[in-house]
Amino acid sequence: MPVGVLAMQGAFREHRLALERCGAAVREVRTRGDLEGLDALVIPGGESTAISLLLRRGELFDALRERIASGLATYGTCAGVILLAKEVLGNGLKTLGLMDLAVRRNAYGRQVDSFEVSLTIPLLGPEPFRAVFIRAPRIERVGSGVEVLAMYDGRPVLVRQGNCLVSCFHPELTADLRLHRYFLENVLQ
Amino acid sequence: MEEKGTWTVKTGFAEMLKGGVIMDVTTPEQARIAEEAGACAVMALERVPADIRAAGGVARMADPEVIVAIMQAVSIPVMAKVRIGHFVEAQILEALGVDFIDESEVLTPADEEFHIDKHRFKVPFVCGARDLGEALRRIGEGAAMIRTKGEAGTGNVVEAVRHMRRMMDGIRRLTALPPEELMTAAKEMGAPYELVRQVAATGRLPVVNFAAGGVATPADAALMMQLGADGVFVGSGIFKSANPAARARAIVMAVTHYQDPQVLAEVSRGLGEAMPGLEIAGLAARLQERGW
Lengths: 189, 292
Description:
The complex is a heterodimer. By secondary structure, chain A is an alpha/beta fold. Chain A has one domain (about 1-185): Class I glutamine amidotransferase (GATase) domain (Rossmann fold, 3-Layer(aba) Sandwich). Chain A has 5 helices and 12 strands. In chain A, α1 links the parallel β1 (about 5) and β2 (about 25-30). Chain B has helices at about 5-15, 30-35, 50-55, 65-75, 85-95, 130-140, 160-175, 180-190, 195-200, 220-225, 235-240, 245-255, 260-265, and strands at about 5, 20-25, 40-45, 80-85, 100-105, 125-130, 145-150, 210, 230-235. Chain B has an 8-stranded parallel β-sheet, with helices on both faces.
């Protein structure tokens, strides 16, 4: 049961390595054909404008939206949050629009303001999680069907809606596999 | 407590650029063309390398006015160049809030012995390298990203290929050496021993490695990716060509689909004239020789 990692642009290698360390078989997704037979999908961090453009040019955009809308377990980090959100505030970026979220791009600042911080994520247990935020998007509003799983600085940073899980930070940049395991064990059910 | 400017935050940002194209731009309008074409970042300059080469004289950091105008024009990351060793130009760029600094041989060096101590900055740095030893020296000084140098402003990919092959050969060679030979290898390469051990163990550079210096066509970009680059810088190749927007889009597609000749064939069609290229043997100055 392969897990796909969207490989338009961005940190797809790090997600692949993290998933493989969890014991998953991984396939990089670049074309519509690559979506066939996938059990789960990761949308990595990267530049959301570049990823959105590449999806639309490669005819992957609609196919991807259909698969996720019909239940494909999906985990998005950083740019993945933006691509799954219904609304991008202050920006006309075309997204898949599958999660009831309003997000703002680069709302934590430019790269000199990027940071790491230890977060408490109740569902992962008492051990804090080292969260790396890089030019991160901020979740400004969530709809009623969205479950908030972790907060930082008064805002949701890890949320789930049905088959979609997203984090504003990058677990693939640390050696901590708990969030990838949670995705594979829980969201994939 | 929030920690900014850590090694993870710097190298992690470089990971986000992977599989992407970073384009040289000189105006806000060019920056928007690059963003709309799918560039993952832009390099803000006063002149592209081909014009720096033609103009001669001393090439310095761009006017902050130009850089700020470009930062305001786009939402993607903005990089800018400083002269090798010019840590005050770097302080200025950090104060402006640029996202990445390129300590670049394309500008006239300010110091012919020493590079910038890049660990002292919160903003990440990218540096050029022609082989593994040079890359590991720069990483030792704090570079969070490497690009092979190639020969900027020529539209001739031959030097970029040479440097990428040298880099990959260097890595492959280290992975085959027994542990007792690594110290001598470090000595011969002029590289920090701990980094040499790390490359020998993992079989890859500890940071992202892009190709640069001479990429002018989608095929050039895909060639560099197939040789092992994590992404591509395109300098003069886009805005010195006949149809910059179309060429920029095609190069972005070529970097994502670098292993798919069907896509490469499709995107290479009807792009108009590429930038005029230069023979390396006829150059008055070889920029790649700057850096120590």
